[in-house]
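To the team - magnesium ion complex, inputs and output below.
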Amino acid sequence: MSLPKHVRLVEVGPRDGLQNEAQPISVADKVRLVDDLTEAGLAYIEVGSFVSPKWVPQMAGSADVFAGIHQRPGVTYAALAPNLRGFEDALAAGVKEVAVFAAASEAFSQRNINCSISDSLKRFEPIMEAARNHGVRVRGYVSCVLGCPYEGKVSAEQVAPVARALHDMGCYEVSLGDTIGTGTAGDTRRLFDVVSAQVPREQLAGHFHDTYGQALANVYASLLEGISVFDSSVAGLGGCPYAKGATGNIASEDVVYLLQGLGIETGIDLDRLIAAGRRISSVLGRDNGSRVARARSAQ
Ligand code: HMG
Ligand code: MG
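Output:
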């Protein structure tokens, strides 16, 4: 299969990245991060989550973040919604696109959203209906597609029906998440091979955490499988509060560098993206998780 000419990056740093931070981050810093990412040319930014603040305290100010950001026409600013309450709060905050999230492993579903996989899918039905009524697009996530922190190995055959269910209920795209970053390129190729029998490849995305240093190889493996949408996080921010030890997503800067080398367009200005990553890393007092950004600052 030939490589795509254009790839869309879904920037999840402000959500997947920051949700795991224990220290308080001001609304102003979050707004600045989203605005920096807009300036860098990202076409899709996941800004926050409308989840229970008891479960994920860091996302509590998401409505204020939405109110503060400078939205550029043509850019999608999205939020996570785990239930109808979250969807309604997102709608009230002016959100035009939401994401629902299910898991391929029962144990992770329980720990992350306090219900079984099938109950979670039922919980999404009223969201889908409300979203249709309000013209809101819904993206779907499946977590733990290549491994679970509680159950270990997860097979592609476990992932496919969950991805299919999200697609059938109306998610226009389903992102497959290697939440704990244990997957390899071989696993990734098999995953997309199996799942694409249920959901068209053009409606699948890859979401790789870099815990085992495999994320960039997994992006390349996905490209070879005809996947052209990837979730990534500026400066490699993040982790998952319900997946102990999981590191951030693959760094957006590193994916852009890979894609540039393959002659694949993203519309992203790498220098501006690096600057955005440097700023948020310094706000958080963290080492920059992007290898490309670190190499550039050493030059
Ligand atoms: P629950 O405790 O079963 O829900 O949580 P509940 O309905 O019994 O409500 C409990 C309390 O939460 C109540 O408040 C509700 O009002 C409130 P109380 O009466 O105790 O004061 N509540 C809410 N508050 C604000 N917004 C809401 C909301 N819903 C209920 N939407 C629930 C169930 C789903 C709410 C909870 O488990 C939750 O919020 N989970 C979110 C977990 C999360 O955000 N995880 C991280 C995102 S997923 C991820 O990172 C993976 C991904 O990146 C892909 C990958 O890497 O694999 C996407
Ligand atoms: Mg994630």
